[in-house]
Amino acid sequence: MRHGIAGRKLNRKSSHRIALLKNLSKSLIVNEQIETTLPKAKDLRPFVEKILTMGKSNTLHSKRKVLAYLGDQSLVNKVFDVLAKRYSNRNGGYVRIIKSGFRYGDSAPKAIIELVERDVDAKGRIDKDKSKIKEQLKEQETATQTTESKKLEPSKPKATKKEILESNTDIKKEEKKT
Length: 178
Fold this sequence. Notes:
Radius of gyration: 31 Å
Strand order of the largest sheet: 1-3-2
CATH class: Alpha Beta
Distance between the termini: 115 Å
Number of strands: 3
CATH architecture: Alpha-Beta Complex
Helix content: 55-70%
Number of domains: 1
Largest sheet: 3 strands, antiparallel
Order of helices and strands: HEHHHEEHH
Shape: elongated
């Protein structure tokens, strides 16, 4: 009998399977929508929903547990600040799985797994990182503009032989006077 055995093995050892679920959950929290195989998506759903449920109880213990799952403080902040507020009135069902055909190489069933009421503009960046990236892009643009303006400045024309000789004769005349 298989009592109390839930989930699939996915042809992986337990440590590899847990690492896979952690990586998929990180990607899902960052992007808010990912595409993977259907069995992986079905196993990922309860994993992510437990993380989001812990995010709704804003305690130090739950923050530490979520950090143990995700391993990234910026993702933990997103779970507790952004996603917990978004799902405060929802009692579960934070994740949606949509079948999306079959993979070309091996005909494995694919699925899109996404957060319900997701932010369409997330596209792989955390809110704090968006502002940092915008600032870096502005700095790079200003740096490239200054280097381009230096390149475009007219350089001083080189002195001709005649000018050099005249300046040398003027110096010699001044030396003779003194």
